[in-house]
Amino acid sequence: MGFKRKRGDGEGEEMDGEDRGRPNFNGGEKRNVILPSMIKNKDKRSKVYAKQKHEKKLEKQKKIKARDAAEKRALELGEEPPQKMIPKTIENTRESDETVCRPDDEELFADIDADEFNPVLRREIIPKILITTCRFNSTRGPALISELISVIPNSHYKKRGTYDLKKIVEYATKKDFTSLIVVHTNRREPNALLIIGLPNGPTAHFKLSNLVLRKDIKNHGNPTSHEPELVLNNFTTRLGNRVGRFFQSLFPQEPNFRGRRVVTFHNQRDFIFFRHHRYIFEEKKQSSTKGKDGAPIERVKARLQECGPRFTLKLVTLQHGTFDTKGGEFEWVHKPEMDTSRRRFFL
Hints:
The strands form two sheets. Strands 3, 4, 5, 6, 7, 8, 9, 10, 11, 12 and 13 form an eleven-stranded mixed sheet that branches. Strands 1-2 form a two-stranded antiparallel ribbon. Residues about 1-25 and about 25-30 have low confidence and may be disordered. It has six helices and 13 strands. By secondary structure, the protein is of the alpha+beta class. This is Brix domain-containing protein.
């Protein structure tokens, strides 16, 4: 059914659905654009949506061509090309933070030279990692641990049993372990990681989510025994720098590049994404592009193959010293009232 449109003499006439998008010459243009959500017929709605999407794509391509032509014209005339438009994102519009690390911050470098990770990062001590579980374990907990052992060199697994965590810390310290990793599970699913630096701390508690084991990754690769390269991204604040050095202290500082293994900790909006890959460089001759001598140019492409596991970490607490629930002093604790804005980040 249509709705009624008033005439000047007070009478009304019905208005069809086709007339709703047409301009109203008496009182201006009311609905000059038909939105797909306004169309009830599914086939017509999908056609209108596809048409609008295609028009937006063509308009975007025109803008790109015009921008490229302007840059080329400016370079030919010896002028400065127009500035590129930088899209606004949550990352580049984050709230200003006084704790962001700066290259001329002498106090930061003094803290780095005196922190607990310095002996390992200066290669004075070879990292040795002990991995264990919580008391009530599940099937995916040991599966994650076995894959962590394949990722982290010189790591060892010990069964938790009924031992208290403080007893395990004392045992690991006597056996010259440099770090202790505890995998917590809830409802048969790993949900947290507790990483303890030995012998003097600190202790970091992370929430673990989005776990994907190696066997569940399509076309996964099998890691070798070579020591991996380590990539740390976007740990920009003092807290982030400390957490990044904590992760760095778990791995040897002499990677074996022959193995072509890389472990990545990528921080984005205070979520730390863990990935483990193997890479390979391939040289391909392209006949379409030729050099000055007429020979085809060789282009090198890097290809990645994920080895797993894959998971996401979120820092909950960072505590001075080793694990102590009663008398421990916390460096940083995440509280719900701290999340005042989507653009406020701590790492």
